[in-house]
Predict the structure.
Amino acid sequence: MIIKSILDNDFYKFTMQNAVIKHFPDAFAEYSFINRGDHKFPPGFGEHLQQELSTLASLSLTDEEYTFLRENCPYLDATYLDFLRGYRYDPSEVCINQMDSSLKIEIKGPWYRTILWEVVIMSCICELYYQYSDSNRLGDEEVYKIAENKIRHYRDLQLYIAEFGTRRRHSLAVHELVVQALKDHGGKYFNGTSNVHLAHKYQLKPIGTHAHEWFMYHGARYGFKMANTMALEHWVNVYRGDLGIALSDTYTSLVFFESFDKKFSKLFDGVRHDSGDPIQFATMTIQHYRDLKIDPLSKTIIFSDGLNPQKVDRIAQFCTGKIGFSFGIGTNFTNDVGLEPMNIVIKMTAAKPHKSGWIPTIKLSDETAKHSGDPQMIQLARQLIDLQY
């Protein structure tokens, strides 16, 4: 059994689930697996994955986990925590088909339920993939030492770091080794982890706010021109100033900042960078705050796109003295074991906001290679928001 706790998931899945229940309890969603790395899956992999996911139906929130969330996440409604106590994964919401070496995975059902599947499925795919490939990873001591060296480097530079590596980790065992090393050697510069199970186990701060799907759903329901504004407004209505880092690149950051007016710019603590050139993004963000007469040093950019020590150093050198910043590092922490990390994602592909039917959802990244969704809908969105690339 790969997933042993219902909290072995990214924190923003729970914060979004709470918000979905409050605002969109009747919405349905569909997600699809995207194999960006064109990985080949051996015979029987899909069936094994389906069996693994079936074990998740037995998971439930323990009393200790409930207490951890109640004491450390006061912005999560008491009624939501009671809901989570009764939540059970339903494997019938996931359809897996394997054709030769390719894998097709679709998730479909009520959004407030299916929202928890994405990260755990990706974690299971990765762990099973490495089991099937029989690849020898580095030993535990080496894995620990690599993570230790990285966090010591960041600590010496006084850079604040969080661990974001659940979805593409090598395995839960490696993930735990990494988190232990970061806790042991990061000191105050290790902010916490996006993995709620490990935050509970190692008494760390769970880190996260919302993901692209929050904005993608709003695009389907309210239209692309209103998506960012409505998504931010609904977030504020739920969390009232808590969880104040806004994701900027669902419909490109240029479009996002048009909606990120003085109200949102003052209320949110900062923004998260997840695609495109980080220096260009930092320059754009700094100028945005200056134009609104807001001191950029009072705000924070959280960088989270494919980070490694060299990239972190370059970003930190540019941002120091100009704007607040910290880093959320994923795969470079949890899958640096001497093997090629997997390049896979699961994205929301359609939403049913009301009785009128299903609407394709899309993402227009700051990198065109990361655009996802129905090609015709992407073209329509580009025209509506006057996107030139």
About this structure: The radius of gyration is 20 Å. The mean pLDDT is 96. The CA atoms of residues 215 and 231 lie 6 Å apart.
